[in-house]
Predict the structure.
Amino acid sequence: MQKIVTKLTIFFLILANFSFLSPVLADTSLNTSSSFNPFYIISDNELQDWQSMTRGDIQAFLDNYSGTLSTLQTKDKNGDLKPAADIIYQAACDYKINPKYILVKLQKEQSLITNATPTERQLDFACGYGCPDSSGCSESNRGFGKQVDAAAGIMRWYYDNVNISSIVKKANVDYLIDGTLIHPLTFATAFLYTYTPHLLGNQNFWTLWQKWFQQIYPDGTLLKSAASSTVYLLRDGYKRSIDSMSVLVSLYDPKMIITAPESELTRYPNGNPITLPNYSILKNVDKYYLLDNETIRPFTSYDVVRKMGYQPEETIEVTDNDLVSYLVGQSISLNTQSPLGRLIKLKETNTIYYLNDDHYYPIIDSQIAKINFPNLTIEKGSVTDLNNLQAGPIIFFKDGTLVGIRGTSQVYVIEKGLKRHIPSEEIFNGLGYDWKNVTWVDETTIAVAGNGQPLFLRPDELNTNQLEETDANVSLNSVMQKVSSDKIKYVGKGEQFTTQMNNFLVADYATGKILAGKNVDEVRPLASFTKVMTAYELLNEKLNLSTSVKYNNTRDRATYGTFRIINGERIKNSDLLKSMLVSSVNTAAKILANQLGGEKTFIKKLNQLAKTWGLKNTTFVESYGYDLGNKSTPAEYLKIFTKALGNKTILNTLGLADYQYNEITDLDNNPRHFDQNSNKLVNKDNLGFNILASKTGYLNEAGSGLAMLVERANDKKKFVIITMGNPDYAHRFDDPEKLTNWALQTF
């Protein structure tokens, strides 16, 4: 007992002596602190989230910082010449280590993310691997490719050998680091100290990680939690509370508010609150200001205020503290033209300009004017209105605006003049964005903005925000179709498995017999389960997979599905099948269906096929599952899934962990397509079963769904697992995994 008391006493003395330490978290799955905690740097989930970035995401990240790695081609660990992004991505995949870890390590050790002119030695020892403090670097580890491979590989080695090797630091064990007692709360934190046994070095790692990867929402985002009506604006990593609805509507569009988990809001430190309505007249002692968004513009005298028509009762008394967060803008005098700004459209060219003071600013799309200046009306103007004014830069969409390219499924969010790609439907939904809030523009408009980092989801944490109540959106739990508790029906041993999923079944693959089930005859939206039936009919109709098809954005674009393709590009049918089945791309399904007489004709064939199979509760209205009219039951879908798996092409495609292919005709200098299976269990280590084929499905109304053909390792017996109506989107693979393990132990 004395030893335990001593250890705890030392522990709290350390906390008292280091003001930068945050309290130890009860929930060690997440570090929500905004200050460095040497006991908790990152979680094990974060360090091992190897699918957090695609190869394209890594390249965009490198491009964003314009360091030498964005264009570097060098030898990988095998001596093959490859781009730096490929080398980083391959190491992450090989060792199941987060590529973000590698990126931070490259910056922390040699500043290679931002350095445009590094030395050869910086590249040769990029991650500091094999470079102990007391001696020179090992020549056997020289080379960028070897360094990246080793930096990721050693982390996996630490996990594999943590209980074998004495050199590997462990979680929940005390270590003396730079004279300070450190008690790592995660293995990831312990491993960082194993690699770099210094406090400052690991604080530098944490600082970079926080800066680059902890703020996932861009500046300009409006956030609130389900438990509070307070709305926050994110700006420069801080959340700024907005004082009232009147202040909010004077500055922003309330429909853009996103409801996020409370745990997400706690990540951002509090900034100065926003308490004043836009375009207010402010009085500070004897000085007067016009509030213009982020700036306060001083009037040269009260006489200017009065002659511009403002009355004393319209002014708001403020203190110095109220004004501290605003920039001081250009003064307003009696000679100032349009202090609130004007929008004009030239009769000679139909070009729109924003006029403010002595400058004019081009606006290349009328929707920019509408979103950025909602309180201004576009007036008729002439080139003479620009006389004696200076030209300013082009005005682009303000921060937080969702922008999509017409005729494609590419969607971006704007931050600081850059467009940040939203790579998938999962990320779009997981961040809580609303499809109705996307502004569609042509490619020439979006090309004005440079490329920022793609958006991402934080693993196992952020996918929940579309499940919570908002003022503008209905929650998943209230939208998702449910079976009331008094109407639940079980089949076989189904009642023995406890789950919040509305529907599931376990079936013997060889016989088709349902061994266990819950609500197997309930009719539900199919969501992307539809794509399996589409694939079956495509191959049943002898679609030639070896030919290619040219994308027509008028004919082929689906309602939703982020598929990077532009009008006129050509893709092989076999590759489209991979996109449709492995990563569940909606547009790929429509492109394929349109080749067999058009989608309407194709849907008639799907419904006729369902009728022939005796599926009385199954109907289809389109080829990919976005429409709620695509319906079936778990029991009837078992027949669809099983019949489809009888086709070897479908079986093999649904069994892919990932894929890569090039467009046949590339028009945007970006021909490569690659993705992992949308079923995250496929790439999970140490599963208790083999996944031979699987398909995911998700809609708010349907909940999450997963269909799998699995094989028991010891006797090779195969089962079909179908789950539907799973309300827990954030952990949508947990219960299907538990159900499968239960089934393999039970039957």
In short: The CA atoms of residues 506 and 721 lie 5 Å apart. Residues 1-34, 460-478 have pLDDT under 50 and may be disordered.
